[in-house]
Automatic annotation (TrEMBL):
The keyword ATP-binding applies. This is Holliday junction branch migration complex subunit RuvA. Has three domains with a flexible linker between the domains II and III and assumes an 'L' shape. Domain III is highly mobile and contacts RuvB. GO terms for biological process: DNA recombination; DNA repair. The RuvA-RuvB-RuvC complex processes Holliday junction (HJ) DNA during genetic recombination and DNA repair, while the RuvA-RuvB complex plays an important role in the rescue of blocked DNA replication forks via replication fork reversal (RFR). RuvA specifically binds to HJ cruciform DNA, conferring on it an open structure. The RuvB hexamer acts as an ATP-dependent pump, pulling dsDNA into and through the RuvAB complex. HJ branch migration allows RuvC to scan DNA until it finds its consensus sequence, where it cleaves and resolves the cruciform DNA. The gene is ruvA. SMART domains: HhH1 (SM00278). Residues 149-200 are annotated as: Domain III. One of its GO terms (molecular function) is four-way junction helicase activity. It comes from Romboutsia ilealis. The lineage of its organism: Bacteria, Bacillati, Bacillota, Clostridia, Peptostreptococcales.
Amino acid sequence: MYSYIKGTVEEINLDYVVIDNNNIGYKINVSSNTIKDLHLGSMAKIYTKLIVREDDMSLCGFATKEEMKMFELLTSVSKIGPKVGLSILSFASPGQLGAYILSEDVSKLSKAPGVGKKTAERIVLELKDKVDKNNVEFEPTLLSSEPIAVSKDEAVDALVALGYSSSEAKEAVDNCKKDGLNTEDIIKKSLTYIMSKSLR
C-alpha cells in the first residue's frame, strides 16, 4: 500500500517514530538502527511495510531497502512476527545478519532479543539459500584484526560462506596469505584473486 513515506520527523521514541506528511502523522515502528540516523525536525524518507492483522493495522519502517528485505526474510520464518523481526534488526545490521546466517552462526543469532537457539537454527535453515551473498559484512570481531596468528581456516570458511567452493577458497587463500596480513585483508585479496581468475 505504501512504498515509502517522506516527511518531517515529529517524534522519536524507543521503537517507533512519527513522520508528518501533509499534516498527517504516521506512526511507524522501526529498529534502533533506523532510529539512529533520524533527527527531530529533519526530513526523512522511510521505506514502509503495512502489517495487517485481524485486530490491528500498523506500519513498519526501514532506513534502507536492504533492511526492509531482511525484515521480509526474517518474518517469513515461522514464529517470527514483526516485533521480533525489528528486534533482530536492532541487534545487527542486515549485512551482519546475512553473514551470521551464511556462516550458520547460531550462537550469535541466538543473542538477538526474542531469539533462542531453536529459532536461530530455524533462521539459518530457512534463510541460508535466500540471503544475498553480495550484501553481507563480516564483523571485525569475526575477522581478526591482529596481524599475527592469522587463521587460514577462518579465511577459507568465510569464503565458503560467501558461496565459493572449498577448493576455490583454499586455492585463493594459499595464493594470498602473507605475513603481516590480517584475516580480513586475506579475504579481500582472495576475493580479488578469484574474480581476476574468472576473467581469464
